[in-house]
From TrEMBL:
This is Helix-turn-helix transcriptional regulator. The lineage of its organism: Bacteria, Bacillati, Actinomycetota, Actinomycetes, Streptosporangiales. PANTHER family: BLL4672 PROTEIN, BLL4672 PROTEIN-RELATED. Pfam families: HTH_31 (PF13560), MLTR_LBD (PF17765). Gene3D superfamilies: 3.30.450.180, lambda repressor-like DNA-binding domains. Residues 33-87 form the HTH cro/C1-type domain. CDD domains: HTH_XRE.
Amino acid sequence: MTHVVDTTQELAAFLRTRRERLDPRELGLPSRRQARRTPGLRREEVAELAGVSTDYIVRLEQGRGLRPSADVVEALARALRLAPVERAYLFNLAQQRPRNADEPATTAAPALARLVADLSPLPAMLMNHRFDILAWNHEMTRLLLDFDTLPPSRRNAMWLCLIHPEIRDFYVDRERVLREGIAHLRTAWAAHPEDRALTDLIAEFITRDEEFARLWAERDIKVNGRGHKVMRHPDVGEIAVQFEVLAPLQDPDQRMVIFRAADDESQSALDRLCAR
């Protein structure tokens, strides 16, 4: 038998269980003379921590059909000391979209950096939602360029494609690659409206590059998880690759990009390139 999730009742039950598991002493709350009849925090204590009324907490926990705002959900998540996955679950139950308050990663987590290295001999790199390149392996540097030679502010895949003299004409089908990248960037921009650095980066691109400004104005939206590119490498000629984009579960705003040769000739070219 299939049961449809009643989000109102699940929200009520989830709030109750998370309230009851908290130890008041760990939160620095004053002790009370009257013994607690139930474990965890009282509703009025959660209300005070979240900045809402006790009656509001009562109605939420009784499943009376309230739909808390994103601000209230965030306040409840902080008051109940929810882990990131629990916070996301609470937002889903409340049918609200969380604000991405955390700054995006500008360095790769050690485990992800090791994974990028371990993917050799496949060219691989890790990017954040801005297209900043956070980690890469030897094969990717041979295929594209040595990212260590760039200042960190220019280790950005879109900047390289638009402005870097070696990469600007690197792709055989440049307009398609650029169009898809801009559509992906617009999707990330809408998902992170508070990311001032991303907004500033897009403004720079619009100002400096007419092609970017034209394609950005078309407002195409796309999340490109896999595809095909043909690269015009100065040392070994054309290399056709299939790429796959994976998102780590614990870092969903980061992207692992993995290239594979699309045919035998391209594989031979990659082998010669990486053996140098």
